[in-house]
Design a protein that fits this description.
- It is a single chain.
- The chain is of the alpha/beta class.
- 26% of the residues lie in helices and 27% in strands.
- It has a 7-stranded mixed beta sheet with strand order 3-2-1-4-5-6-7. Strands 8, 9, 10, 11, 12 and 13 form a 6-stranded antiparallel beta sheet that branches.
- A hairpin with a 2-residue loop joins strand 8 and strand 9.
- The termini are far apart.
């Protein structure tokens, strides 16, 4: 049996945690989360640890944190680290302390290393993957232990892609860990020449540029989670697009142009338009487009987004 420390922070982390403990090779001794919520009783990982009597720790960004972690590692005889969406870099002294390290990364490595792999995969690729890799000095650059590819459909969005990833984790993670400890694996080095980097999604990077090709705009919009919807500006107001589809046309209407009909709000791009299905004005709730257009008239035909 191998004494594990788990590091995570989000919904995918929780799915990984639940399936990691199913492995007959794992004795989970410590869970560390990077939780911004003040109320831990709303954190499913914390509640899981309470229920299963697993030592729980909240990440603190201070000078002593990693030294404190090493003390706990020694006390609990930690031999292995498993990380998923933790959002902090492990010091070498922590990596080198344990025998085995595992990092679950949701992209077709070496494509889309970094903090936003799902977002960038949806924008750019028809195929992605769930990878288990070694933790290395450089972020997401460790040798690949296991990889399971999956397709990204043109109708997929962030939520549906995340569901595909969670399903792969649910079906395979405990099996993969068991196979590792049975020496049923081959390490694959990542090809640095094929490396691409995903960047942190800041508020400014969520603004939609309707002057691009319509397919690129559609891929941009569908790549965001509901917690961070993309937006456009109109008369100093922000409007967030929750759901849309797109149409390619040969019409010569200028990009950024708004066209309205009874139950339709179109914004033109290069080579087509985005047809908005669900929208949210800043500070208001998300509405389907029919309800939105039945309210106070905000747009008129041939208005331009900012």
């Amino acid at each position: 049996m191998n004494n594990f420390a788990f590091f995570g922070s989000d919904d995918l982390s929780f799915e990984s945690l639940k399936n990691l403990v199913l492995s007959k090779s794992v004795a989970l001794k410590l869970v560390v989360v990077k939780n911004k919520q003040k109320n831990l009783l709303k954190d499913p990982i914390f509640l899981f640890c309470q229920k299963n009597k697993i030592f729980f720790l909240n990440f603190e960004k201070n000078k002593t944190f990693w030294n404190d972690i090493l003390k706990i590692f020694k006390e609990k005889s930690i031999t292995s680290i498993f990380c998923c969406s933790f959002g902090a870099i492990f010091p070498l002294k922590v990596i080198n302390f344990v025998k085995d390290t595992f990092n679950l990364h949701p992209s077709f490595l070496p494509r889309w290393k970094g903090p936003s792999p799902i977002v960038y995969s949806i924008r750019h690729d028809p195929i992605s993957a769930v990878c288990i890799i070694k933790i290395a000095k450089e972020v997401d650059s460790g040798d690949i232990i296991k990889m399971e590819p999956f397709l990204i459909d043109i109708k997929d969005n962030y939520l549906s892609v995340l569901s595909k990833i969670k399903e792969i984790v649910h079906k395979n993670l405990s099996k993969w860990i068991n196979e590792y400890y049975q020496n049923n694996f081959s390490l694959i080095k990542q090809d640095k020449s094929k490396e691409t980097i995903s960047k942190m999604i800041t508020f400014s990077k969520r603004k939609i540029n309707f002057e691009k090709n319509v397919l690129d705009v559609y891929n941009f919009i569908r790549s965001f989670p509901k917690s961070d919807l993309p937006y456009f500006c109109f008369k100093n107001n922000l409007f967030f697009i929750d759901e849309c589809n797109f149409f390619e046309t040969k019409e010569t209407i200028l990009p950024k142009t708004i066209i309205l009909s009874k139950n339709q709000l179109k914004i033109y791009c290069l080579n087509g338009f985005i047809n908005i299905l669900k929208i949210q004005k800043e500070g208001k709730k998300i509405l389907n487009i029919k309800s939105f257009l039945n309210g106070k008239l905000i747009f008129k035909n041939y208005d331009q987004t900012q």
